[in-house]
Design brief:
By secondary structure, the protein is an alpha+beta fold. It is built from 13 helices and 19 strands. It starts with a strand and ends in a 23-residue tail after the last strand.
Length: 505
């Protein structure tokens, strides 16, 4: 029996890292022969990342390392717990009868660091600024993705920002109107772009930022920001975020978000909601035949291809979303399948693998090529392209097998499946199965309980497996350097968010 993992978390949530801010617990300095973690203050945390600037505006968070500091300072309607599960943030209750019109009741005790109450109007103004084309936020399209009423027209300059489908009914009641049913809306509200600012104001510096999170900004310099905890019982009373360069000693910091490839001491790996696979072109004269696709896939081991790279996947879903999965195995011999199509050693199957430039993609190609080259019936050729030309080839259907991937913003397996609907704008392979379309439409449009929803998801996964739609390879991982003395990071957290308030030494 296939069971879905109980974890649940979405599009862009992330963590950063910086240097140590020492707060002496004793006047006497620790002996120099103590282990590194004993020299570090129990009340202070240092988070570092290799970068050149701090981003103070949540509407312009485009890198994972930029978001951690703002998530320590700001809280949206929904947030994450230590395990990466979506939990209430500023919202305490929410309701919807049709999945299109939603009411969120805010915490009436929540305050900004300037003493003002956190209100529904703060969210309205923040999201209106996000949608305003004058600000040109690269994350504005997320409002369209959510289905917020008039978001698309506002971004295109066809309607004014005050027509956006968000309204403050009173100080602590926020109404969100969607253009389509979206039962997953609460889970989508964890996105960093939706973090509010006081009165929706554009922040120019972290030091002047009114905050509603677990920390407030205390001191800001060119390459560091020091935060102070709002509550006295927070384990780390101060957190220093530091921008670092190659010359810095990584042992000085508790957490490094984007460590150098050469740094391996105290590294940890966390799963990401991102998959890596190759997809077949169903319009190609050879790849349109299921037995040829099956023969190719049977020769490839995701475990071997992903070794040292990621978590091996055997379906279109990330490995961490399924437990106890009984994989579908095709019966037969791969070479016998190919021979049915007149493929021989003298007339081999010529396969072109298209992928974008980069060491990771080249490494994956080499491993795939070695696996397929074990058969005398197959000849493999590389087609290494820049990113844009690769996308153009995929758009035109000009490929046999092409490197693809998918990332989700929150932990919903359905997000990895909608791309396989025959009418999906993301379906470039030409795959079409009426049964899969029907199941995906039920998933999108019907009111389903968790059991019914999970069954449909698994039915779709199995049909995609049987149709050999892709060659799944691995789930991406997030690599961090974490001092062994720091506790509180859950190894199964896929949200890519690590709040300083949840950590201790």
């Amino acid at each position: 029996m296939i069971k879905l993992s109980t974890q649940f978390a979405k599009y862009l949530a992330y963590a950063t890292a910086c240097v140590l801010f020492l707060v002496a617990c004793e006047k006497k300095a620790p002996p120099q022969n103590l282990p590194n973690f004993e020299k570090k203050s129990i009340l202070s945390l240092s988070r570092a990342y290799y970068g050149v600037t701090f981003q103070a505006d949540p509407h312009f968070i485009t890198r994972s390392e930029d978001s951690a500091i703002l998530r320590d300072l700001l809280v949206g309607l929904m947030t994450f717990d230590k395990k990466g599960k979506v939990v209430p943030g500023m919202a305490r209750e929410w309701f919807s009868e049709d999945g299109k019109n939603w009411l969120f009741i805010l915490d009436d005790k929540a305050r900004w660091s300037n003493g003002a109450p956190v209100t529904a109007s703060d969210f309205v103004a923040s999201w209106q600024r996000l949608s305003n084309p004058e600000y040109q936020s690269p994350l504005a399209q997320y409002l369209v993705y959510m289905g917020v009423k008039n978001a698309k027209e506002i971004i295109e300059g066809k309607k004014s920002v005050d027509t956006l489908g968000v309204k403050a009914l009173n100080a602590h009641t926020l109404q969100i109107q969607l253009t389509k049913k979206n039962s997953q809306l609460p889970n989508m509200l964890t996105h960093s772009a939706l973090l509010p600012t006081y009165l929706g104001q554009e922040p120019y510096s972290v030091i002047n930022l009114a905050t509603n999170g677990a920390y407030t900004s205390f001191k800001v310099e060119k390459d560091s920001v020091i935060l102070k905890a709002v509550k006295e019982d927070t384990p780390f009373q101060t957190v220093e975020y530091r921008l670092i360069q190659v010359v810095h000693n990584p042992d000085r910091f508790d957490i490094i978000e984007n460590p150098l490839p050469t740094s391996h001491k105290s590294e940890i790996f966390l799963p990401r909601l991102c998959t890596y696979f190759y997809e077949f072109n169903f319009k190609n004269e050879l790849m349109k035949h299921k037995e040829i696709r099956q023969a190719i896939r049977m020769m490839i081991s995701p475990a071997e291809v992903s070794d040292g790279i990621g978590i091996p996947s055997h379906t279109v879903l990330p490995r961490t979303m399924l437990t106890g999965y009984e994989r579908y195995f095709a019966q037969g011999n791969a070479e016998q399948m190919l021979q049915k199509f007149g493929i021989t050693e003298n007339k081999p199957l010529n396969i072109t693998l298209s992928y974008n430039r980069g060491e990771l993609h080249s490494q994956v190609y080499r491993r795939l090529s070695r696996s397929l080259a074990q058969s005398d019936l197959i000849r493999v050729s590389p087609q290494e392209l820049d990113w844009k030309p690769l996308l153009e080839k995929r758009e035109k259907g000009d490929f046999q097998l092409i490197r693809s991937g998918w990332c989700a913003d929150y932990q919903d397996p359905a997000l990895f499946l909608y791309q396989f609907h025959s009418q999906s704008a993301d379906n470039k392979s030409g795959y079409s199965n009426p049964d899969v379309d029907k199941l995906l439409e039920d998933l999108m449009n019907k009111s389903l309980n968790s059991t019914e929803r999970n069954k449909i998801i698994l039915d779709v996964v199995q049909k995609l497996e049987q149709d050999v739609v892709v060659i799944p390879l691995f789930q991406y991982q997030r690599r961090l350097i974490v001092d062994p003395s720091v506790k509180g990071i859950d190894p199964e957290n896929v949200s890519e968010v690590i709040y300083s308030k949840d950590l201790s030494r």
